[in-house]
Amino acid sequence: MGQHAEIRAVLAAEGLEPHAWSNRAGFGYDWHDHPYRKVLYCVEGSITFHTDEGDVELRTGDRLDLPPGTRHAATVGPAGVTCLEAARPIR
User: Fold this and answer.
1) pTM to 2 decimals?
2) Fewest Cβ atoms nearer than 10 Å: which of 23, 42, 44, 76?
3) Residues 66-79: pLDDT tens digits?
C-alpha cells in the first residue's frame, strides 16, 4: 500500500473523509480560519503553515491538526505540495 493509501486509511479509521489537493511551488494562501478542526497530512513535497503562534513546516508524512478558529496562512515549498485534508466537525 502506498503512502497516499496508508494516510487515507488512517483518516478513515478516525471517521474522516479526506480530499486531496496540490499546489505549485511558492503558492500562498492568505490568512483565514475554519469553523471545524482541520486535519491535514503532507503526502508529497512541503508546505509551511503560518499561525499567530509561529510557523509550522510540514514535509512528506507530517500531520497538522488545527483547532477550529485558528487563524492561519500557508506557503507551498520549492517542490510543490500534495496534501490529504479532512474536516473534523465540532461536537
Assistant:
1) 0.91
2) 44
3) 999 999 999 999 99
